[in-house]
Amino acid sequence: MFFSSPFKLKSKGIMGMNQRNSGYIGRYNPRKLYPLVDNKLKTKIIAREANVTTPALLGVISMQAEVEQVETYIKDTPGFVIKPAKGSGGKGILVITKVENGRYYKPNGDEESLAEIKRHVTDILAGLFSLGGSADVAVVEGLIQFDDAFDGFSFEGVPDVRVIVFKGFPVMAMMRLSTAASDGKANLHQGAVGVGIDITSGKAINAVQFDKPVKFHPDTNKELALLEVPRWERLIYLASSCYEMSGMGYLGTDMVLDRDLGPMLLELNARPGLAIQIANGQGILPRLKLIESLGNDHGMSVEERIEFCKKHFSDQSN
């Protein structure tokens, strides 16, 4: 492990699972608001009301009798994504990156038939991928055309940016890059690369895979230190404004960059993981404590909160 002893963990300000759950999630995230972030369709609705950009919504399938309609949603698209509204950890997400002569292809080139796509939708409705196994709805979205700046930084998947937003302050960020080991998904526990991102510049400051430092992408050999997130100012503004949008005090915001439409919100997470600390090579606790010391009456706007974090959490200030 990158951090191995209790002394090192404490000296680096590392926050553990129990402290996160009781001191931050339990304290700052009202239970009544969980459905807004646990359900991707509800998140998309409140995001649109708040003028936060999200991937295009092609259709929603909420009952078995509607499964046949999926063809009308996807037939004229260059690619699409079908996901469970209440899924977690990337489970149940079907990505089709090419549609050609009525045939559908996944990022790895494997073909998916229309019958298999309909069966996948049926599995979603039955709750096969949802939190707690409850009945779900299938959300059909347009495919994100990820920014050319990320060429070589990701393998068979769309890279995303996780920003931890605490009381509206963007306190820590990382980019998640899919690999062959992660099967094209951006989940670190499945083998994706996590790259710590400087809050001020959007540039890479550290990178890990399976909790160990890495310098190059394991599949493309791209040097990870060269990674710089374009349109960083807009991205971090959208992430920070999710505080007002959701009412959640401790939040993981997952953002993506479309080459034409720019930064957009993919989903929110009320229980963001702790691996972002390993990706950044430092603990998040000192940053959270500093924000708490401001109290609740600081009166800062979104722009002022971002400037505060740039001043205090820049890679150059550590």
Provide an overview of this structure.
With 318 residues, the chain is of the alpha+beta class. The protein is 29% helix and 23% strand. The chain has 10 helices and 14 strands. Helix 7 packs across helix 10.
The portion of residues forming beta strands comes to 15-25%
Mean pLDDT: 92
Helix content: 25-40%
Structural class from helices and strands? Answer: alpha+beta
Per DSSP E runs of 2 or more residues, the count of β-strands stands at 14
Helical stretch count? 10
Task: Report strand order across the widest sheet.
Answer: 12-11-10-9-8-13-14
Oligomer: single chain
Q: Low-confidence stretches at least 5 residues in length (pLDDT < 50)?
A: none
Any idea what the shape is? globular
Task: Characterize the largest beta sheet: strand count, sense, and whether it forms a barrel.
Answer: 7 strands, antiparallel
Task: Report the order of strands and helices.
Answer: HHHHEHEEEEEHEEEEEEHEEHHH
Question: Which secondary structure elements does this structure contain, and how are they paired or packed?
Answer:
Elements: H1 6-11, H2 17-28, H3 34-38, H4 40-49, E1 57-61, H5 70-74, E2 80-84, E3 94-96, E4 98-100, E5 103-105, E6 111-112, H6 114-125, E7 138-142, E8 160-166, E9 169-177, E10 193-197, E11 204-209, E12 212-213, H7 232-246, E13 250-258, E14 262-269, H8 275-280, H9 285-293, H10 302-313
Antiparallel strand pairs: 1-7, 2-3, 2-7, 4-5, 5-6, 8-9, 8-13, 9-10, 10-11, 11-12, 13-14
